[in-house]
Every structure is written in C-alpha cells, then in structure tokens.
Design brief:
Low-confidence stretches: 1-5
Largest sheet: none
Structural class: mainly alpha
Shape: elongated
Radius of gyration: 21 Å
Length: 208
C-alpha cells in the first residue's frame, strides 16, 4: 500500500516527474496511470493530484525537462562555427538526441492536450528557446532587416529535420529511401541554406 508522503511540495514534484519519466521511457503514454505513478512514488493517487492538476500536466513537465536537455546540448554547439556548419551541427545533435531517448522523444509527438486546453506559456517557452537558437545562427545569412525571414527559415528547417527524425525513430525511413537519416538531414540543411544564400541581395559597393 502506498504510504503518505513526508516530502515537501518541491521535492515531491521532482519525485513525481522522475517517476513519470521512468514510466514513459519504459512503457510510453499507455503505461502512465495515476495508480502506476503513485506506486512508484510510494504515495496515494490523491497526493499526486495535490501537486498536479492531472496526468497531462505531469507529462508536460516531463516534456519540458526533455526540451531543456536538448537546449543544453544545442547550446554547446561550437560558437566559432560558420552559420552553415553551426546549423548542420544543431540538426545532427537533434537527430542523435531523438535516438538516445526514443520513447521520451516520441511523447512530444504523441501527447495531445484535451480539446480547448492551451499549452502553458512555460512549456511553449522551451520550444521558443530552441527555435531562437537556430534563428540566431541563421540571421547572419540574411540581409539586414530580414529578421522575419530568418525566423521563418528556422521553423522550416526545424519542421523538416523533425520529420526526418520522426521517420527514423519510428523505423519507417526505409519506406521512403535507402539513405540514412543523417544523409537526408545533411542534404536538407545544405540545400536549404544554399537557397538562402542565393536569394540574398548582392552587397552594394562600399557596404561590406
């Protein structure tokens, strides 16, 4: 029988997220129930709902932790690298990360909030941080004043890389091509960035 928790709210919250992450990594969304989570934390199901409103909120906290890890890895990308090389490195980091944590990464795709329930601001901020890192690397490839174009490019690249990773993690890439996910990502990034460079207006004399 689950015992009453003697931990403080912050410690208990961390324990619940730890336990949920372990369950999700092993059994996916179907394995995460209030009963399974309470048993792993050694508390009552009622205690869970004193800390989190519902299981969706627990999953969002696991997702946020995963996105924080990915952000930390992307932040370690070589700061001295050329924009093209830096963006490619970020894309490969994303691919490696998706295969290192395949079940958890898949939760980002599978988990959906109930209709009418908006994603919390603190969760959206994690994705914004990741996209901002890509955007910052792309800005030097655009003409001054093209911040909107750089932001769009970051999201197009992110969506493309994400799609390749999705097929690769699901072991469905062979239905599309015999090439590896790494080859496809490199081709996608390099081709797209060459297109950006080709569209950039030539520098006026004396403006370099």
């Amino acid at each position: 029988m689950a015992r009453r928790s003697k931990h403080g709210p912050d410690a208990l919250k961390g324990m619940i997220v730890d336990a949920a992450e372990a369950i999700l990594a092993a059994d996916g969304l179907d394995g995460l129930t209030a009963r399974a989570l309470a048993e792993r934390v050694a508390c009552s199901p009622g205690t869970l709902y004193n800390v989190f409103a519902n299981l969706d909120e627990v999953v969002l906290n696991v997702e946020a932790r995963l996105l924080d890890r990915l952000s930390a890895r992307i932040a370690d990308a070589r700061p001295e690298a050329r924009p093209r090389d830096a963006v490619l490195q970020m894309a490969e980091i994303y691919l490696d990360f998706s295969h290192e944590f395949p079940r958890l990464w898949s939760i980002l795709l599978e988990h959906a909030l109930p209709a009418g329930q908006a994603t919390p601001d603190w969760h959206r901020a994690r994705l914004s941080e990741l996209l901002g890192a890509v955007e910052a690397r792309l800005v030097p490839m655009f003409a001054p004043g093209q911040q909107t174009e750089a932001a769009l490019a970051a999201r197009v690249l992110w969506a493309g890389v994400h799609g390749i990773c999705s097929l690769s993690v699901a072991d469905k890439l062979t239905n599309v091509t015999a090439q590896s996910a790494r080859v496809l990502i490199r081709d996608l990034v390099e081709t797209y960035l060459r297109g950006i460079e080709a569209r950039r207006p030539p520098l006026l004399p004396g403006s370099a």
